């Protein structure tokens, strides 16, 4: 049996502001942006460059309850891990794009890592693993 995680939904306030952040600041590719008339929603999928499988579904909050999750999808913990093959290149590009790091780069036993926030405050690790995972 072979399985993989295809999509991870991130609850967003607005499709276009989320696309702007993920595509224009993080450098992700816009894979799909299709209007779903039966639900009056858009199916918006973005993916990091060089990523072959896991993508993010930018899911606009459609209720007060869902809105409470915007920016707090993991209860204040790091939610997602953006793996890179060149930490310093990507860190510099992200800083230049105005992305806020909440923990500065450090060398850890598993690699180089720093924590940044997405546009809503969800925490991410930017990480280059030493074992090439």
3D architecture notes:
The protein has 133 residues and is of the alpha/beta class. Helix content is 19%, strand content 41%. The protein contains three helices and eight strands. The strands form two sheets. Strands 1-4-3-2 form a four-stranded mixed sheet, covered by helices on one side. A four-stranded mixed sheet has the order 5-8-7-6, covered by helices on one side. The longest helix is centred in the N-terminal third of the chain and has 11 residues, at 15-25. The radius of gyration is 15 Å and the shape is globular. The relative contact order is 0.18.
How is this fold's topology laid out?
Blueprint: E1 7-12, H1 15-25, E2 29-36, E3 41-47, E4 55-60, H2 64-67, E5 78-83, H3 87-96, E6 101-108, E7 111-117, E8 123-129
Parallel strand pairs: 1-4, 5-8
Antiparallel strand pairs: 2-3, 3-4, 6-7, 7-8
Encode the helix/strand succession as letters. EHEEEHEHEEE
Number of strands: 8
Placed side by side, the strands forming the largest sheet appear as: 1-4-3-2
Structural class: alpha/beta
